[in-house]
Amino acid sequence: MSETRKVRITCPSCNKTFDVGLPFTQFNESQLEKGLVTVLLKNECGHKCFVFIDKDFKMRGGHCADFDLDSEGINSSPVQNQYQASELLLKYAAEIIKMDIQEEPFINAIGAQNKIDAMENALIRGDIKKAGSLIDSLRKFASEIDEKEFANKLLKKVQSINKLIIEKPNLDWNTFVLDDGEARSEAEYASMHVIHYERLRKVVAELEYEAIEGRLPRAAVEAKRQRLIELMDEA
């Protein structure tokens, strides 16, 4: 019999609160130790939502689906694949930003903070190719100023982005890109803005968890959040 843990869930769509029993023994302990685990729930209010649970079984965020393709008898496999790839990209962005915060004193010392922020913003926007180009440009800059160790770290980031793309050969990565300039109406622009903010919120939730655990400076996480919010309106 599976051990369950009670988790207080607040529906991201209607803000109603429920207590849900989650099967503790089905969770991978190593996943929980790393940060957040994503769980798909159909709440009592009827909304189907992805919620983010930390190792203490507390909800750290979540979002609800606009459509439930399964209930309509539609093959949702491509949508699920897109969702999983999108979540993978955000997890990757969070890991990159964690490393950047840890390197922040050095990044500031060489005057590269704006370049780093622009790369992180590109990742959150879903523009993985632009992010890779920005990292490679920064790598060349680091080599020019003879910061070989930092240049090698950036090279590994470029290689990890390329690996991410190679491992998903059937995905059109352009479908993840939020390009506000292509919005055809104020409503479409507002929709993109909401999606961008939601992506940013997910990434920041990971960073805040690291700050709670004492692995990142809380002030640095807040400063990073503010800078990325300021970049939201930049293409």
Helix content: 40-55%
Distance between the termini: 52 Å
Strand content: 5-15%
Element pattern in H and E: EEHEEEHHHHHHH
Number of strands: 5
So what's the oligomer here? single chain
Q: How many structural domains can be distinguished in the coordinates?
A: 2
Going across the biggest sheet, name each strand in turn. 3-4-5
Could you list the spans in which at least 5 consecutive residues all have pLDDT below 50? 69-79
Tally of DSSP helical segments? 8
Structural class by helix and strand composition: alpha+beta
Dominant shape: globular
Q: What is the overall pLDDT average?
A: 78
Radius of gyration, rounded?
Answer: 19 Å
Strand count, sense and barrel status of the largest sheet are:
3 strands, antiparallel
Notes on the protein architecture:
Residues 69-79 have low confidence and may be disordered. The longest helix is centred in the last third of the chain and has 27 residues, at 186-212. A hairpin with a 5-residue loop joins strand 3 (37-42) and strand 4 (48-53). It contains eight helices and five strands; from the N terminus they run ββαβββααααααα. The radius of gyration is 19 Å and the shape is globular. It is α+β, with helices and mostly antiparallel strands and 235 residues long. The chain has two domains: 4-66, no CATH class; 77-230, no CATH class. Helix 7 packs antiparallel against helix 8. The strands form two sheets. The protein has a three-stranded antiparallel β-sheet with strand order 3-4-5, covered by helices on one side. A two-stranded antiparallel sheet has the order 1-2.
